[in-house]
Amino acid sequence: xxxxxxxxxxxxxxxxxxxxxxxxxxxxxxxxxxxxxxxxxxxxxxxxxxxxxxxxxxxxxxxxxxxxxxxxxxxxxxxxxxxxxxxxxxxxxxxxxxxxxxxxxxxxxxxxxxxxxxxxxxxxxxxxxxxxxxxxxxxxxxxxxxxxxxxxxxxxxxxxxxxxxxxxxxxxxxxxxxxxxxxxxxxxxxxxxxxxxxxxxxxxxxxxxxxxxxxxxxx
Length: 219
Fold this sequence. Notes:
The protein is an alpha/beta fold and 219 residues long. Helices cover 34% and strands 21% of the residues. It has one domain: Rossmann fold. 41% of the residues are buried.
């Protein structure tokens, strides 16, 4: 089981958000924002914030850091770490199962993530056959996009997908994000895609929109 942080509501949790951090960060990364939103108590939501395992990352000269999978280059010209991505998928599935064992139905569980964490959330949600509350991918992309047509299991009429991206993102280019959206929509899914005047980050005007969207999926 992954190491993780959890933010519990004062009352018994009636829903959950599993939030995956980006490359080199950890589960603490979004704690201040989540506490600022007060959604745990307002919605009765448990926030699950796992820490990715530590591993060498090729992109960063083999430096060991928290990463959901290896990344070879930002343009993906050297391919993708399929084994690592699928391992991360299984780790996220285990967290979904854990919430179900704690009494929550899958449609009360929302997946979210930033950058690499958002990529894992997207990859997993599209391959999860049972209904989820939704999936939120921030400054992220769709990994292993060529495999989606043969592996998708989510019902396109039920899965709510939101992608947010910075128009000046130097890490995951805006073009890559747009192409990811297109690949998902080619498979019959609708993607709410929001472009923001920012780089690889979040911005102030985005915050209330995100809070409102998350609350809307979990009311």
